[in-house]
């Protein structure tokens, strides 16, 4: 089926980041006021963190950024280059060269915007045992401007895409671009897909999230993100199946299809709401000793899901492929993979 897919079918927009990944002690998290299994944006007190990781903890450099990770995994399944296009802003430095090289090697059609105002964004990935804490310094990623999508070649790529995926993280960068792309998707009956991305998005970026939400055809989130979203919207329930159902019923502009909601719960079952029906999918249990790094599991899940979705597969198959992809990625360091995927339907 993949050989029939055309270039540019899937478009993703997000924050390209170079992950600086290292295993640290609990006191290092406490020093920088960070929590395990959480994601935040860096502020002034976090600035020394990145150099400290490199100097003291023998950190690894991994091409990252949530959407870029997801699209890399999607391309891994498709085994045909440039089905996915990726846009985001980077600096004019050695880190952006590393990012682009890795992304292109993984089959992405990369359409970075380059800025000389800021260096390429970085994300500290602090691993404690099987858990990870993310602290992102967006830097150049914050500079993504609306003018980038007005360049004729980029405008054509947006028009050519049938599936558009944006992370909640991108709401902190350029809500105007999200509105333009979301409205384009709605007017042309394309599938607009979004990820809640982190608890702070629902807490601190309620307006841009609220503006984008009516256009969302498929929504992803993990258990913590779903809980915080429900609290922010006063759902008056902590039952995640009920939360997913309520999210599916929220205002939606394109009435031609119902909203699909997917909530992952770590080692717990994946919750799917489709056409008012709630279905749970058990996840594959991985022996504790085989789990190396949970960073990237959520990105990989969406990558596996999208790989099947754009091939026209049933949502149930998309979920199962997402689970399979996530189980592979947690057995490696960072959002990385080896060999060819052997996912079986």
Automatic annotation (TrEMBL):
CDD domains from the UniProt entry: adenosine_kinase
The EC number(s) this enzyme carries: 2.7.1.20
Top EC class, one word: transferase
Domain (Carbohydrate kinase PfkB) ranges: 27-337
Transferase is among the record's keywords: yes
Known catalytic reactions: adenosine + ATP = AMP + ADP + H(+)
Gene Ontology molecular functions: kinase activity
SUPFAM superfamilies associated with the record: Ribokinase-like
Cofactor(s) in the UniProt record: Mg(2+)
Record family assignment: Belongs to the carbohydrate kinase PfkB family.
Functional summary from the UniProt entry: ATP dependent phosphorylation of adenosine and other related nucleoside analogs to monophosphate derivatives.
Protein name: Adenosine kinase
Species annotation: Polistes dominula (European paper wasp)
Primary gene name: LOC107064298
């Amino acid at each position: 089926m993949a050989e029939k897919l055309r270039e540019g079918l899937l478009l993703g927009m997000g924050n390209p980041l170079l992950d600086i990944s290292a295993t640290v002690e609990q006191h290092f998290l406490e020093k920088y006021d960070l929590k395990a299994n959480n994601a935040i944006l860096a502020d002034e007190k976090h600035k020394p963190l990145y150099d400290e990781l490199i100097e003291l903890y023998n950190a690894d450099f991994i091409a990252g950024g949530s959407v870029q990770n997801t699209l890399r995994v999607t391309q891994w399944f498709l085994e045909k280059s440039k089905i996915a296009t990726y846009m985001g802003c980077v600096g004019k430095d050695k880190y952006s060269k590393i990012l682009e090289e890795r992304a292109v090697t993984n089959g992405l059609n990369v359409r970075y915007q380059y800025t000389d105002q800021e260096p390429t964004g970085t994300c500290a990935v602090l691993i404690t045992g099987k858990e990870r804490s993310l602290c992102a310094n967006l830097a150049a990623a914050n500079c993504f401007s609306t003018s980038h999508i007005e360049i004729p070649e980029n405008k054509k790529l947006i028009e050519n895409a049938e599936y558009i995926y944006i992370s909640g993280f991108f709401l902190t960068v350029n809500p105007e671009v999200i509105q333009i792309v979301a409205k384009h998707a709605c007017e042309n009956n394309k599938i607009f897909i979004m990820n809640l991305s982190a608890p702070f998005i629902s807490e601190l970026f309620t307006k841009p999230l609220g503006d984008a939400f009516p256009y969302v055809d498929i929504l992803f989130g993990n258990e913590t993100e779903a809980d915080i979203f429900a609290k922010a919207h006063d759902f008056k329930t902590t039952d995640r199946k009920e939360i997913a159902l309520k999210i599916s019923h929220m205002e939606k502009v394109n009435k031609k299809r119902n909203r699909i909601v997917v909530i992952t719960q770590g080692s717990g079952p994946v919750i799917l709401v489709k056409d008012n029906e709630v279905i749970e999918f058990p996840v594959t249990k991985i022996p504790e000793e085989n789990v190396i790094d949970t960073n990237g599991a959520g990105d990989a899940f969406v990558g596996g899901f999208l790989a099947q979705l754009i091939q026209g597969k049933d949502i149930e198959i998309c979920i199962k492929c997402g689970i399979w992809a996530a189980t592979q990625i947690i057995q490696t360091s960072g959002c990385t993979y080896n060999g060819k995927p052997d996912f079986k339907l």
